[in-house]
Design brief:
Oligomer: single chain
Structural class: alpha/beta
Coiled coil: 203-234
Number of domains: 2
Protein name: Leucine rich repeat containing 61
Number of strands: 7
Order of helices and strands: HEEEEEHEEHH
Radius of gyration: 42 Å
CATH topology of the largest domain: Leucine-rich repeat, LRR (right-handed beta-alpha superhelix)
Shape: elongated
InterPro entries: Leu-rich_rpt, LRR_dom_sf
Organism: Latimeria chalumnae
Keywords: Coiled coil, Leucine-rich repeat, Repeat
Helix content: 25-40%
């Protein structure tokens, strides 16, 4: 049973009305006790317990987010007075009919309802109905998210598109085995994706070629200087010999 002492110990608050956020997940409790005295609570997690009765929550007028998944809840009438409730998770309970959800219809701010969670395989008997989705949308015309799927507002078109694609693919399989798909052919010419030298590589190559040419010029200049020096030396020797001829 949830007691005032337990609530104070878990939150560190001395006054129950000072509690704004509360997590009582996985305690194995079946009795919410005095939780209704937390009048200012806004976010409450009572998931993974053995709770069957939500009546103590009827006094929580400021409650915005409630996670009551994985319990043994059969009726949501007690939440009809939680006028600020916006998000509700009751996946993994025992809600067997749409009548058990009628208590939520007065909640005009309720935008997010989760009755099943495919990832964790948590659901409710009411979700088995073939008219589940359409009935939920009729009962709660203001909701934007149902079971994690955005059904109205921004992003809903994407979910609808994905659903249409899934239905189309199912239709292909229902019409018998798929015909053999031809092998893929390249749609660009060979070498299209090969890496091409970038501008830096081109500049480096040009710089290297320039240095090679410059080096050759220096070598040619050196050879020319040597040839000139050799020619001058030869001419000076000839002049000396001519002086000794009579």
């Amino acid at each position: 049973k949830i007691t005032a002492q337990l609530l104070k110990c878990r939150t560190g608050e001395f006054d129950l009305e000072s509690i704004l956020f509360l997590t009582l997940r996985g305690l194995g409790t079946s009795d919410l006790g005095c939780i209704g005295d937390c009048l200012n609570i806004e976010r409450l997690d009572i998931s993974d317990n053995n709770i069957t009765n939500l009546t103590p929550l009827s006094s929580l007028k400021l409650l915005i987010v409630l996670n009551a998944s994985c319990n043994r809840i059969t009726n949501l009438d007690a939440l009809s007075s939680c006028e600020n409730l916006q998000s509700l998770n009751v996946a993994g309970n025992l809600l067997s009919s749409f009548d058990s959800l009628r208590g939520l219809t007065p909640l005009k701010k309720l935008e997010n309802i989760r009755l099943k969670n495919c990832i964790g395989n948590f659901t409710n008997p009411v979700c088995i109905s073939s008219a589940y989705r359409s009935t939920m949308l009729d009962m709660f015309p203001n909701i934007k998210v149902l079971d994690g799927e955005r059904v109205s507002g921004r992003g809903s078109d994407l979910f609808k598109l994905c659903k249409d694609i899934d239905n189309s693919l199912k239709g292909l399989y229902n019409n018998g085995p798929l015909r053999e798909i031809p092998s893929a052919k390249p749609w660009v010419e060979k070498g299209y994706w090969d890496l091409k030298p970038n501008q830096n590589i081109i500049i480096e190559e040009a710089y290297k070629q320039f240095n090679d040419i410059l080096q050759e010029c220096k070598e040619l200049r050196g050879r020319a200087n040597d040839a000139l020096a050799q020619a001058e030396k030869s001419l000076s020797v000839e002049n000396v010999k001519a002086k000794f001829i009579f």
